[in-house]
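Protein modeling request. Please complete all fields; requests missing the sequence field cannot be processed.
Requester role: graduate student
Desired output: 3D structure, token encoding
Chains: 1
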Amino acid sequence: MKRNIILCTLAGVAMALTAQVKPGVEVLRDNNFDILRGKRVGLITNPSGVDNKLKSTVDILADAPGVEVVALYAPEHGVRGDFHAGDKVENAVDSATGIPVYSIYGKHRKPSPEMLKDIDVMVYDIQDNGCRSFTFISTMGLAMEACAELGKEFVVLDRPNPINGNKIEGNLTEPDCVSFVSQFAIPYLYGLTPGELAQYLNNEGMLKNGAKVDLKVVPMEGYERSMDFRATGMPWVLPSPHMPVPESAIYYPVSGILGELYCISIGVGYTEPFKLFASEWIDAQELTKRLNDRNIPGMMFRPIYIRPFYSTGQGKNYEGVEVYVTDVDKAPLSLTQFYVMEELADMYPDKKIFDIADTKRFSMFDKVCGSKQIRERFTKRYKTADIEDYWNKDNESFRAASQKYHLYK
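Delivered output (409 residues):
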């Protein structure tokens, strides 16, 4: 037992020494928790909220002198990661600290006044994946709204955008597609850190009724916009079960929209989540050749043969393509799944994706896209060219509007 503890300690020290970037929680600690001292603190976090030695932000703040943590708030998957994707999170007491935990992924998605009555300041510390449909930024924005309404302070302990801080793709969310997977009018890939996004939401009138919260961001040290997560040297703690490695954030937008239809495997339920497209009726060699012949910038494909352990295709022999992103900056990450659907429609006219998918899933597909226009335009001819301009129409205007909130070069 002692040997294991020593090995774990040494591993934590090694990671801390190799990390080029300090997350916001370490910068806060370096400044002796000055902005939280003497205040009653609430904390929204999950297992990804750690320092470079893997100590949880829950425990860091609970141990901090002069800081009183009075409540924890559990997003999707829970504060300690003990709830599966989509499962309702329950109110509880944190077994490690004895601090009450309020669910904000159950009956409430936005903290209620009752939940906030005992705090002076809310702290947010979660590793995001840089994609609008990942629910943690919706949690952050709704919590900012709740704090604004009650005059509570809000602090974001910043973390990297794991894709990088420059990648922007996808139309802004339109009013009829606002949901917890597209809560705010931002692109599908928005190229900001959580702290930068919080400033954008707060100052661009994105919170309900144009409210503004008393917001402070604790920036990272050593971070540059061009970095993907690997370049930071920080330890990756999966923020949700199907994000096992930093590269998962890069592949999530490659297939995640199509994955909402549950009609072919995107690798969820196999060992390569979001990194493949497969089914029992797909010819792996032919689909691979077609996609490689398109010469999609920054992308390569290879045949793959799988038997999913769970989810779509469980226990069946599937084949298809595995995706390799060779240049993130050049790759049209989120349009890749539409290229795949286009080629499959040409190969198998009787198995067009929206003909074989359950129509009940169309609404979620639209919400993740942030617009009904994407599905409606695409299904007329199953040509990616019919949606490309619409999908990218807001990219440059958002880039210009968001640049003023950049905290890093």
